[in-house]
Amino acid sequence: MIGTQEIHEVVSSIWTSLLGMQIDPATSADPPAERYYTGRVTIRGGWNGTVVVRCAQGLARRVAAAMFEIDPASVTVDDMRDAIGEVTNIAAGNLKALMPDMCSLGLPAVVEAPRGELEALGDVEQHARFESHGESFSVALVAAH
């Protein structure tokens, strides 16, 4: 099974190569945020579940600005959704490649909502929390019920 170390390696690679941003493991609980962008990509096959990337709106804005090379003040809601969807899709593809059996990816979906509970999606198998630019985000592997 994929562990938090593998998740960290995948996420760190995406953050540095695609976004030019550094990440660190989170050292404290997630601070409250009004809005979160949560990306989800399902995986089916040898493992059935969902890769979930959740980040606060402020970090989603930074991610979109870095990805699309635009000023953070110019970032739209659609830009943030697209960027978090792309990061989630890339993470899911890289994590799928580490799974022992053949799997296929679904399409990414992104919702903007207050912080939700991962357990509603299934059984949380791995949950890694990170920080970038003083803001937290997380990546989880949630097995289907």
Please provide a written account of the structure.
With 145 residues, the protein is α+β, with helices and mostly antiparallel strands. The chain has one domain: Chemotaxis protein chec (3-Layer(aba) Sandwich), CATH 3.40.1550. 33% of the residues lie in helices and 32% in strands. It has three helices and seven strands; from the N terminus they run αβββααββββ. Strands 1, 2, 3, 4, 5, 6 and 7 form a seven-stranded antiparallel beta sheet that branches. β6 and β7 form a beta hairpin. α1 crosses α3. The radius of gyration is 14 Å and the shape is globular. The two termini are 17 Å apart. The relative contact order is 0.27.
Short description:
The chain is of the alpha+beta class and 145 residues long. It has helices spanning 4-19, 57-68, 77-96; strands spanning 24-25, 36-45, 49-56, 103-105, 109-113, 123-132, 135-143.
